[in-house]
């Protein structure tokens, strides 16, 4: 299922295998929340920009079109015509992002739907059933992602409850995989570490979480308000207690520099809405730093976004044209920009893996970690 084939310091070069294919790690998972990448990007486009794993959202697909509909259509792979690996998050992040619309109990979480206000209950068992209906390759355990900072008095019982929820997730997940009509009987389960910004709680929770046999383990609840260095410090505290033979996933992170620094700390899997979201607002990534394509200086610039890039946008169009599309409010602007940024992130992972293969990751880190997030001209 997962093999670490090479290391450099704590950085790991691995190979992950699941029901829908083999993945080279470290890997960035492209986020298709509702079965599509925002910006008019389809599953077919993901193949063109080098995506290895697609990530979709349990809560959103449960509300619309309904996980029962997706199961009836043969599962999420067939529904969105993507034949590669899929990870589904558990709905736990919505416990954080919809904090004004939910109530938490030991049984689970009651949401007021952000679409029509109807009451929706989701607990560990419900989350597992929804993800089983979707048929993803990796199901995430149901957890509570707390805001940072939160008081220790709140975080401690929260992460204790998340641990109890994981045990319930594991039992229900095993049951669902054994059923004859399960969409993907080889679906895997990843547990999630929580504990806010408190290193001792994080370490305790990771040790206890690792006692429950999961197929991989994630660090959740970061990049939600804490300083970047605090995030790195938490990874440093947790990583020694994560099983060495299982994949490690840092949820919702992050910038190119965040990814490079987390790889250096032993992380294998990443996801973030940032590349697509920034693209839709005109912020684009290049190997010289970021640029805002809406700036006046690009009005007559005939060069591609990044002259070294092989994405569909850079192969055919100029900065001037893309700037014009944004100014004109054309949907094509967002599509081309999103394709570029996703291609950049996937290419970033290709280069990280190559550096690990060649034993030059630390040199790569020194060259790019402080550069890729900085606007061109400011580095």
TrEMBL record:
It is an enzyme of class 2 (transferase). Residues 252-258, 276-280 are annotated as: RNA binding. The active site is at residues 89, 271. Its cofactor is Zn(2+). It catalyses: 7-aminomethyl-7-carbaguanine + guanosine(34) in tRNA = 7-aminomethyl-7-carbaguanosine(34) in tRNA + guanine. Binds 1 zinc ion per subunit. GO terms for biological process: tRNA queuosine(34) biosynthetic process. One of its GO terms (molecular function) is tRNA-guanosine(34) queuine transglycosylase activity. Keywords: Glycosyltransferase, Metal-binding, Queuosine biosynthesis, Transferase, tRNA processing, Zinc. It comes from Pseudoflavonifractor capillosus ATCC 29799. Its EC number is 2.4.2.29. One of its GO terms (cellular component) is cytosol. HAMAP family: Q_tRNA_Tgt. This is Queuine tRNA-ribosyltransferase.
